[in-house]
Specification:
Strand order of the largest sheet: 11-10-9-12-13
Largest sheet: 5 strands, antiparallel
Number of strands: 13
Radius of gyration: 19 Å
Structural class: alpha+beta
Order of helices and strands: EHEEHEHHEEEHEHEEEHEEH
Number of helices: 8
Shape: globular
Strand content: 15-25%
Bound molecules: adenosine-5'-diphosphate, magnesium ion
Helix content: 25-40%
Length: 286
């Protein structure tokens, strides 16, 4: 019987909300399976036929330790090289360069002073981050001192800062997340806007994520097309992927490709836990 470990973080010993569902689905396809924290020193990662990264959401402040762990795990999904590349939002620049419509993004390393539009809204957030932690929304020149103070907090923690225009169509239409397993589209969700005017999420808060409003969604043909294009740009195999798109007047644009530790919202789509479990079983047997 193939054995699988689902990797989480110490604060979420049974994974995310859909953790029990995934565990049951894996058992349903005949796998031996358990949840373990990625930084638990008692785990023999080499003993598993496959380790699947899931809710490891405490890694942004410890990314090098996390990547070291990923490279130590002999059979990891997604592959460590993909995690290296995808756990820093600078990958957005690479995807934009190969023609993927992407939220315009500028990166500022520690020591650099951020610049921002003086007559429009913008977002300041960490290049390495998850769960909307450290994300903040500002408006124009009047907010620049606040935006720079927020960037300074991130810089002081050694973190590179990402500045983007605030794409306000998200306020009415929400964000679309397309979920794929092993090359195939599975389901999609709508995520409500996460940054009401004036939001400054803490950089080093004790929580792992900001509460989200998630519902099932049928993606548009244009969203499907961009999602497929994003994934076609990857040259390493992946077991799971989520493509997050923001609506604009010119069509959907990529805000985030998640092939590291995405929430997959299995409880919004009947059958999706089973589809993921089948994909896990196939990878574990390979
Ligand atoms: N440029 C933007 N325009 C509009 N909303 C944004 C923008 N950047 C971030 N947000 C909001 O903040 C949330 C978190 O940002 P995201 O880039 O997805 O980082 P994380 O890795 O923390 O999920 C998004 O789901 C979205 O609601
Ligand atoms: Mg996101």
């Amino acid at each position: 019987v193939p054995s699988v470990v689902l990797a989480t973080c110490a604060d979420l010993p049974d994974g995310d909300d859909d953790g029990p569902e995934l565990l049951a689905a894996c058992r349903g396809v005949g796998l031996t399976v358990e949840w373990r924290a990625w930084d638990d020193p008692r785990v023999d990662w080499a003993a598993a036929d496959l380790v699947v990264i899931r809710s490891t959401w405490d890694y942004p402040a410890r990314r090098s330790e996390f990547l070291e762990w990923a490279h130590r795990v002999p059979r990891l999904a997604n592959p460590a090289q993909l995690v290296d590349w995808n756990s820093d939002k600078r990958y957005l620049a690479g995807l934009a360069a190969v023609g993927v419509p992407t939220v315009p993004s500028r990166f500022f390393a520690p020591g650099e002073e951020i610049t921002a539009p003086d007559d429009a809204e913008y977002v300041v957030k960490p290049a390495i981050g998850s769960g909307s932690m450290g994300a903040a929304r500002f408006a124009g020149a009047a907010d620049l001192p606040g935006a720079r103070a927020h960037a300074r907090h991130l810089h002081d923690a050694g973190r590179t800062v990402l500045v983007q225009p605030y794409l306000a169509d998200v306020d009415a239409s929400g964000e679309t997340g397309l979920v794929y397993f092993a090359g195939r589209y599975s389901h999609a969700i709508r995520k409500g806007p996460m940054l009401p005017s004036g939001t400054v999420n803490p950089v080093d808060g004790r929580s792992l994520f900001v509460e989200e409003s998630i519902t099932a969604r049928t993606p548009s043909a244009a969203e499907q097309e961009v999602g497929d294009r994003v994934l076609a740009a990857l040259d390493l195999p992946w077991l799971y992927a989520r493509v997050d798109l923001l609506p604009t007047g010119g069509g959907p644009v990529l805000i985030e490709l998640e092939v590291t530790e995405p929430s997959l919202f299995l409880n919004t789509s009947p059958g999706s836990a089973g589809r993921l479990a089948e994909a896990i079983a196939t990878w574990a047997a390979a």
